[in-house]
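Consider the tokenized backbone below.
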């Protein structure tokens, strides 16, 4: 396989990337325009309100709601520790005393004489927003976040899982068609972005998690190994929130697929440098790709690699072409074009589109919209 034709899938030794970093709720921006930041710089911070607990005191104390304030030990706004007495009765004989204790550590938020309930709230949870990139703050949004920009080498994959991370790029495979094996991963790879070749199996991924790698970048894997890694079938529209211990980026798709030569050569030249990696992928619409970003110094250029997209324009699809499906329900599957019906065909969404019939390696066939494939050039 010489290279892969993937419209919009960018592999370039130099570009300018701009990332908008926004808090999930209003908070405090900690940097300003023109500040230099690194991946681990906290650029903004906010506090998520703590979880609310409702305690029905009148039922437990056997009193009327309007009398509740007379029995309260803790008042609105007071802090409480788990196990502190919130309220108690005051009988003549102390043996008959009843008290109610706090189930959490937090604050007494509300004491209601209408319902007889006390609302407790756990302490707020801090949310820190990292810059993710080594670069410059080009714009600050008060109370919201910032925009960070950096010159970089930029590589997009076809599919990924796991959130944003960063680490040193280390090549474990010596060629784009070499499989990543367990023996290639050593304690030296802890905290690193490890680049494989054509394939990573379930055992390798388990080893990567045990070693403590930050990210794996490889050509392909089996979908059954992805299910084993996650513990469930991936059925969501957007990935990136999975917690498997590392971030995974597939540059080619599902199956054993040698990494595109240009992608491998660029990663090889970037070995030893810091990479910022995200596995976030929009599966259904294809508008978000996993990425590897390697920040560069101003004016710096990676020599020997031409800028642009992977692959060259070609004159259209023909019967016999190898293709990869890039939309559900056959996302990532590799097959061969066996028929190109000339007429528009109605698909399950009731749209009328041009389609092709694709045969997969196991002999099964599927009718796929032409917009849902990319051609693999041999």
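A designed sequence for it:
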């Amino acid at each position: 396989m010489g290279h892969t034709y993937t419209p919009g899938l960018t592999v370039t030794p130099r570009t300018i990337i701009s990332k908008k970093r926004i808090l999930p709720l209003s908070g405090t921006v900690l940097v300003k325009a023109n500040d230099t930041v690194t991946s681990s710089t906290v650029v903004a911070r906010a506090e998520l309100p703590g979880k609310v607990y409702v305690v029905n005191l009148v039922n437990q104390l056997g009193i009327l709601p309007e009398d509740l304030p007379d029995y309260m030990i803790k008042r609105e706004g007071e802090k409480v520790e788990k196990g502190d007495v919130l309220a108690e009765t005051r009988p003549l004989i102390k043996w008959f005393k009843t008290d109610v204790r706090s189930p959490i550590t937090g604050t007494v938020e509300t004491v209601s004489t209408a319902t007889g309930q006390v609302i407790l709230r756990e302490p707020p949870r801090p949310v820190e927003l990292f810059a993710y990139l080594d670069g410059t703050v080009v714009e600050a949004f008060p109370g919201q976040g910032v925009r960070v920009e950096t010159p970089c080498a930029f590589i997009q994959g076809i599919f990924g899982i796991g959130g944003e991370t960063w680490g040193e790029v280390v090549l474990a495979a010596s060629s784009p068609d070499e499989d990543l094996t367990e023996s290639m991963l050593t304690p030296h790879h802890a905290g690193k972005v490890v680049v494989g070749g054509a394939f990573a199996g379930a055992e390798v991924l388990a080893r990567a998690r045990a070693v403590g790698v930050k990210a794996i970048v490889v050509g392909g894997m089996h979908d059954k190994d992805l299910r084993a890694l996650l513990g469930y079938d991936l059925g969501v529209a957007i990935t990136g929130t999975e917690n498997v211990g590392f971030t995974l980026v597939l540059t080619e798709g599902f199956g054993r697929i040698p990494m595109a030569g240009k992608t491998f050569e660029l990663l090889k030249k970037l070995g030893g440098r810091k990479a910022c990696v995200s596995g976030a992928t929009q599966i259904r619409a294809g508008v978000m790709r996993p990425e590897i970003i390697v920040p560069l110094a101003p004016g710096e250029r990676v020599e020997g690699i031409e800028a642009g997209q992977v692959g060259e324009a070609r004159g259209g699809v023909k019967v016999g072409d190898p293709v990869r499906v890039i939309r559900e329900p056959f996302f990532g599957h590799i097959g061969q074009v066996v028929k190109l019906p000339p007429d528009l065909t109605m698909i399950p969404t009731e749209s009328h589109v041009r389609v092709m019939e694709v045969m997969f390696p196991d002999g099964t066939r599927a009718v796929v919209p032409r917009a849902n494939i990319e051609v693999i050039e041999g």
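The CA atoms of residues 13 and 153 lie 4 Å apart.
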